[in-house]
Write a structure and sequence with these properties.
Elements (H helix, E strand, L loop, with lengths): L3 E7 L6 H14 L4 E4 L2 E3 L3 E3 L5 E3 H9 L11 E7 L2 E6 L2 E7 L3 H21 L3 E5 L17 H7 L3 E6 L5 H11 L2 H4 L2 E9 L9 H8 L5 E6 L29 E6 L4 E2 L5 H4 L4 E6 L2 H4 L4 E4 L1 E2 L2 H11 L1 H10 L3 E5 L1 H5 L3 E4 L9 E4 L7 E17 L13 E11 L11 E5 L3 E4 L1 E2 L5 E4 L8 H10 L11 H15 L2 H9 L3
Parallel strand pairs: 1-9, 1-10, 2-9, 3-6, 10-11, 11-12, 13-15, 13-16, 16-18, 18-26, 19-21
Antiparallel strand pairs: 4-5, 6-7, 7-8, 14-17, 19-20, 21-22, 21-23, 23-24, 25-26
Helix pairs in contact: 1-2, 1-14
Length: 503
């Protein structure tokens, strides 16, 4: 018997669809259902790796975790990774498939739709409920003919729809009513209720607004008004979320560890740093201009979808010189994945994997590695043993950490006595990973998710002057907190009736 389905759509990007799906996955899992997330097509540079080595959106990984299951490629069969204006890499069923531009995108849509339908059907066969998520707005009328993620999916599954609006952004009533007006009648019939998200203040301020909304929006009721929940601690789908992040901390300024993360133009997997943001006494800032850097306790170069292009931007912006000058003052510098490659001596692309064939660039020369881009993309979950013989991780030597790799290229050391960070073991192979400089202050690794390891994260923070207050970030508690918050503010009896047809 096929699973029931529920579709979560939004009036625009970043309305809160992904977080609501995450909450509902946890809620229905807590209630004993076999529940799975599903997003037919995602556009994001935040990617994760399934146990089988398939690439999916990081938001999908978080939603699966909330549901108490491992992420599977059927949950996100199509992942688009923007590379430049109008050009994206297509990850199909977890593996690189092709590159698309405006000229060929619609040509491959029929084949992609076939894969969406098959993935959804497989999920429905092994679950009680599939909570489906749309992308952007379902009424972009210039793009609707090629829709394979919004109302076309809802119509195919005959799924009831919740339409989410972000009241914090303003104009929520106009955007909800306008969306309903632009939907076709058979699409509009599937929209069972609205959800107003990110509300701040006294709900009485809404007055009779919800009643007026129902009257003007084809008698569609509002299922709930969800108050703004700060510092959720769950992976965001898109770097748009970085625009809304505030510097959040629970300690006086004088006690803060200040970490500046370089916001690269093609920043990827920035959720790597969420565990740092959750620690009391730690301030995380995203910066993209020299004058914003100041003199932090540490600088992190994050992952990048286009490492060579972002390295060129780093050089042009003057940030390279600033980072090098701070390194000379023994400020801690860290590189993750693409950022690790940038910290090396050189980067070479002999086969044109990222740029034109034969392209090469000088790195920041802060670590003794050279990076060579190759055609094989490495996507694998790993377990690693710490091997550091210098720096803050020496006390952890021999201990185990977990993470995942998702990158092109390899970065061999330029001399035999460089110090590796760890030794990786995975389903693919075993090999040394990462490099630490001679004073232990500068290091890099290919491992995403490395800061999710509590002992590792705390050891590094202590080397920056941090004092542990006994608080440890717990992602499962974050999912439970979110679920409790949504349960409190949604009409769950009405939602049960929408899904199952009974109270």
């Amino acid at each position: 018997m096929s699973a029931k389905t529920l579709m979560i759509l939004g009036t625009h990007s970043n309305a809160g669809k992904s977080i609501l799906v995450t909450a509902l996955c946890r809620i229905f899992s807590q209630d004993g259902y076999r529940v799975s997330p599903f997003k037919a097509q995602n556009i994001s540079l935040n990617a994760g790796v399934t146990p089988e080595g398939h690439e999916v959106g990081r938001a999908t990984v978080a939603q699966a975790e909330a549901a108490g299951i491992s992420a599977h490629v059927d949950m996100n069969p199509i992942l688009l990774k923007p590379e430049s204006n109008g050009r994206s890499q297509v990850i199909l069923n977890g593996k690189p498939y092709t590159h698309i531009e405006a000229t060929n995108w619609f040509n491959i849509k029929p084949y992609l739709w076939e894969n969406v339908v098959m993935a959804l059907e497989r999920l429905r066969q092994r679950n009680d409920l599939v909570i489906m998520e749309g992308a952007g707005s379902p009424v972009e009328i210039n793009l609707k003919a090629g829709d394979i993620v919004n109302m076309r999916v809802a119509l195919h599954a005959q799924a009831p729809v919740l339409l989410v609006g972000d009241i914090d952004r303003g104009g929520v009533f106009a955007s909800l009513v306008g969306t309903m007006v632009l939907l076709e009648p058979e699409e509009r019939a599937l929209v069972k209720a609205f959800v107003l998200n990110k509300f701040r203040g006294d709900i009485s301020l809404l007055g009779d607004g919800l009643d007026m909304l129902q009257k003007r929006a084809f008698n569609t009721p509002t299922l709930g008004v969800i108050p703004y929940l700060p510092d959720i601690g769950i992976a965001e789908e898109d770097s748009v979320a970085l625009d809304e992040q505030k510097q959040q901390h629970n300690s006086p300024e004088s006690q803060l560890v200040d970490i500046a993360i370089i916001r690269l133009p093609h920043i990827a997997n920035f959720d790597d740093f969420d565990p740092l943001r959750q620690e009391a006494g730690v301030q995380v800032r995203y910066v993209d201009q020299v004058e914003e850097v100041d003199e932090p306790d540490a600088i992190i170069l994050p992952g990048s979808k286009m490492t060579l292009a972002d390295l060129a931007w780093l050089h042009r912006s003057g940030l390279t010189e600033r980072i090098i000058s701070l390194a000379q003052k023994r400020i801690a510098i860290v590189g993750i994945c693409g950022g690790y490659q940038m910290l090396g001596e050189s980067l070479v692309d002999p086969d044109g994997i990222e740029a034109i064939a034969g392209a090469q660039a000088s790195g920041l020369r802060l670590l003794p590695i050279n990076t060579i881009f190759t055609g094989n993309k490495r996507t694998v979950q790993v377990q690693a043993t710490i091997q550091a013989d210098i720096g803050p991780f020496v006390p952890l030597r021999g201990g185990s950490i977990q993470g995942y790799e998702i990158h092109m290229g390899c970065s061999p050391p330029t001399h035999s006595h460089s110090s590796p960070l760890c030794y990786i073991q995975s389903s693919l192979d075993g090999h040394a990973d990462g490099t630490i400089n001679s004073d232990g202050r500068i290091w890099g690794t290919y491992l995403h998710g490395i800061f999710n390891n509590d002992a590792f994260r705390h050891a590094w923070l202590r080397s920056l002057g941090w004092r542990n207050d006994g608080h440890t970030f717990d992602r499962q508690q974050a999912y439970n907190r979110l679920a409790d918050h949504v349960r409190t503010h949604l009409d769950m009896d009405a939602l049960q009736q929408i899904i199952w047809g009974q109270k």
